[in-house]
């Protein structure tokens, strides 16, 4: 269940409002956190302002957020001519989102910390403010909110209350994330047979079913039944307790191969139905390494660019977060600089170039050149302000994007453009992002049920028996 508020509204009105002390990293992660605490009060230590000032220079996402948080604080404080010592009501600045008060540190605080904590450290100075407030206001809870795990551990070691910032999390448990598919119970047809209609539409069969289960379906969700023969379909229409289920194109059959690639399992078949459908503008594919996310997407992109001419070219981008030590500056143009990050693209193109059916070495080389000419590699750094028209846009390693960065990328899509996000939320390399707060989890949750989007989580690895065994035992 999505966590959309830091505090639940079930708190009895008779209890005193809580006082949340914000660490700097909360404001640098989400500048709007100032308005996310509803009826509770927030307190900004002077050291938090110092750290915001220290981090405001630069062009990174953190620097932009630090500047935005500083501007928001300035607007709030400037609107109060009578002084800020008694706190500033947040109702008007937040447009009703928050009803608590904002307190800024207006006095010198000198609390003796344990000998093992050096007072020069900014984190420890924030802890001293927390200790002071907890002693001054024993009648109400005083809680530190920080994204820093060690900071929270130190606070608890000192007997102080501390918690993570929950507002950025789409869901509390990644196991609850929408998978895009649903297994039907064995008695589905018996319980939904009353008034059922079926008809043919070109190569598909559609079923209109009414019963208790359709109310839990989402548009473009895949449903399947392990029967003989197996039944696989997706939800095309919903109206209360009635749903229209439409059978799929079986991309596991050679006659329906996409650029020489066929689906090897049920989820891959679902993915290709999304990737090849012109009515679906936005696709998200989740799965661990080796499940075929990039290969299926590239095959579908090449088929629709070079064979169907539905799109003019493929644009591929990804977050440049190194796994190990950075190797420094790279020479060349934007595309040449991105080449070391595109090893997955090269590996999959080698596979796809072997499926084009050219017998001669010259023919294969010509086909490979044609393919590469239709694939452009772009850096995320230069995406702002662009509009892509009739492109097949692939965002790889999308789990390392924040929700704000994801919004920036998806809103680049112009008429006729299809956006595909690939990633594995178990492999996040960006600081402060978790499985619940990743931009990929964010768009999967927000786009579910939209008629022109689809999602599927790929479960089975199809790389090799060695890779599958290593994934299980290591």
Properties at a glance:
18 strands; Rossmann fold; single chain; six-stranded mixed β-sheet; disordered N terminus; alpha/beta
| Helix proportion range | 25-40%
Rg is 27 Å
Summed up, the domain count is: 3
CATH architecture of the largest domain: 3-Layer(aba) Sandwich
- Superfamily (CATH H level) name of the largest domain: P-loop containing nucleotide triphosphate hydrolases
Number of strands: 18
Spatial strand sequence of the major β-sheet? 3-4-2-1-5-6
Q: Structural class of the helices, strands and pairings?
A: alpha/beta
CATH class of the largest domain: Alpha Beta
Average pLDDT number: 83
Sheet of most strands: 6 strands, mixed
Strand content: 15-25%
Helical segment tally? 14
- Based on Cα principal axes, name the global outline: globular
| CATH fold-level assignment of the largest domain | Rossmann fold
How far apart lie the N and C ends?
31 Å
Layout of strands and helices, then pairs:
Elements: E1 19-22, H1 24-29, E2 41-44, H2 46-55, H3 61-78, E3 88-89, E4 101-104, H4 122-136, E5 142-145, H5 149-157, E6 161-163, E7 181-183, H6 188-191, E8 197-201, E9 204-210, E10 222-225, E11 231-239, E12 242-247, H7 266-275, E13 282-287, H8 293-307, E14 313-318, H9 334-338, H10 343-353, H11 361-373, E15 375-377, E16 391-396, H12 403-410, E17 418-423, H13 439-447, E18 453-458, H14 465-473
Parallel strand pairs: 1-2, 1-5, 2-4, 5-6, 7-10, 13-17, 13-18, 14-15, 14-16, 16-17
Antiparallel strand pairs: 3-4, 8-9, 9-12, 10-11, 11-12
